[in-house]
Amino acid sequence: MSYLFTLALQPRMFLMKSIRALRKPIALPASRASLLVLLLLGLFASGCGRREPYRTPDGRVIVTYWEKWTGFEADAMQEIIDDFNASQDRILVQMLSTSQIDQKVLLATAGGNPPDLAGLWSVQVNIFSEKNALTPLDRRLEEAGISESDYLPVYWDLCRHRGFTWALPSTPATLALHWNKDLFREAGLPPDQPPRSIAELDEMAERLTLVELRRDGQPVQVPYSELTPAEKEAKTFRIVRMGFLPNEPGWWSTMWGYWFGAELLEDEETISALTPENIAAFEWMQSYAEKYGVDNIRRFGSTFGNFASPQNPFLGGTLAMVLQGVWMFNFIDRYAPTLDWGAAPFPSVDPEALPDVTLAESDVLVIPRGARHPDEAFEFMLYVNSPGPMERLNIGQRKFSPLARTSASFEDEHPNPNIAVFRDLAAGPGVRTAPQTTVWSEYNTELAVAVDRVYSLIATPQEALRQAQDRAQWKMDRVSRRWHHVGDARLQQWSEYADAR
Amino acid sequence: MLTRGERRNLAVGLCFISPWIVGFLMLTVYPVAASLYFSFCDYDVLSPPLWVGALNYTDMATDTVFWKSLWNTLRFAAMALPLGMILSLLVAVLLNQAVAGRSIFRTIYFLPSLIPLVASVMIWLWIFNGSFGLLNYALSFLGIEGPNWLADPSWTMPSLVIMSFWGIGNTVVIYLAALQDVPRHLYESADLDGASAFAKLRHITIPLISPVIYFNLIMGIIGSLQVFVQPYIMMPGGGPDQAALFYAVYLFENAFTYLNMGYASAMAWVLFAIILALTLFATRLSRRHVYYAGE
User: Fold this and answer.
1) Which chain A residues are Cβ-neighbours of B257 within 8 angstroms?
2) In A, which residues are within 8 Å of B47 by CB distance?
3) Is residue A228 located within the same domain as residue A265?
4) Radius of gyration in angstroms for the set of CA atoms belonging to chain B, rounded to a whole number
5) Residue A241 lies in a domain
6) Do A408 and A454 fall within a single domain?
7) A151 near A406, Cβ under 8 Å?
């Protein structure tokens, strides 16, 4: 804001002089014009607020809190806020539902006028903290007696970057296989036995996939597994229903490698996209395009409606198995309440060596750098992270608690009958996170391009991943170069911030 | 030297236009100058810019996606611009004929350019849908099985070109105004000479409206190289195989998704240079072909 002000100041002085220089006959219109100009300038200047606490008339500090949630998710948080506001008379938390919250928080922080508290996603903790947009919480956490042992390790880990803690989890998530039991029954598969390995998944998918083709001039619908070798080869069928599709919904297609034992980062500064495990994952994806036909899959894909609608292929019964997060229950509940479904760990290529693989992510609470009331905001964060409110928030949002200990009644009270699956996955041996690096967004884009090329049979997995590897590494090198310039100063600054009150 | 009165008038005049001056300095001159400076920096908006010299520009030379986005954009311009100009001229000529309900037709052709871009893009998403799309439905009457327009990398660019014709209304209106300025008597004398309709178009209409064609060409070059909204909404991330990743979209991603503001600024300046060069080229080319009545 300050540069706007300096710019604004000089024309203002110039104006004052010119107004004095004016002679009477034209003084009236000119002063009107300058009044207009002054008003305009005032408009700019009013953006430059002073750094005094915002208070209610009765003296409570107002904590502004921007959150991405709307609907029932926002309602669940609002209840916690109301309880907090009623529990004491010093702080009043006000939540504002904000779309594209990450960009808005970033710009508000850059402009020096951020909210006191913001709800981001865990994948952004690295990027935001490295760019100096967050307040480190270490000293405050230490004083409050909060430590790693209070949380499921993966969620604590997601809140840390370069040795500092930048966030606390609010509502966590893991991913699991969701399957449609009715379609299993229809295909003659035991409805309570989901696949336990990738090979089993592929085989079940063939039996669950229904295609329409012409036999002796008549249109017939048969399971893919019952096609003749010649029909499989010709691929002149229309897909009516699919057992499984590796790119639906496609939100984590870049990380299938985890289910094949891949590591996507070698170390902090080295990308490892081109590994045998990751190549195996991409070959697996490609096998679906080769088996069912690129055009057939595209045509089938164009029949899908919006994710949050009854035309979602899993909710509409045209896709039998899908990798989805703990939130899927909400959409089942709303758009397909009669669906008979189950959730289980998504199978890996080798269930013995790689059991219970899942991807964990979390909504997190952060205090942006330059927040007006960091202490009051932190007090509310602590309140949300205490066992009672945390469980109520997550029952309200139908997720599980990221805390290490949950009350015995939590799972019984929870509306999602499969909630234990998701929590066990989060606490289990196969829990993974998106690569914790500040270039993940770019790395992910490069991997997504590779997925697309492989899935469209434009490139082999090796070719596509080689390109992704090189480009992501190039971007990683840019970030590393910058860090080498500013890293020491930044770390020093952070420890001062973390220690100072 | 200015007299006292002149100085005073100058002050008053400046005073009156000062809102514009302030706005121009703060909202145009400053950002443009800043972006030139940032293009030589590693800058992520939140921390102070770090001077890196010409690195952003040399990086661009080896960035394959940069070249791909530039190639895609030029390809789009090369297809959409000439086709769009011919089509809009044709429509304008037709709308200039004395037929019943002329003003209704004019309104119909102009209407699409009044619809907000985002809204019309959402409609086109459905028109192009491979299974339920109107376009493929229409093609099915001709016995053609339409492609998956937006999911097939080889059809994404033609889809965008087709969609760009939707917005020719503005250009048509400009052509129409020019067509109505062509003196009647030239056509009358051509009629006496027995000229055909095509000959009249070729030898009277086009030469006389050539300044407007030239104007539309320049605006078209600028517009089609900066195309952003349609691909950004229809094909986030550039669509299949980045076949529809446009320059402006890649620039935007660098600036606001990855926060590589320095790189994005450098890209913006390169785009500026490209547009400037093409415009100068078009100006040079047109010197011989554009006819101004006053000369």
Assistant:
1) 441
2) 131-132, 486
3) yes
4) 24
5) yes
6) no
7) no
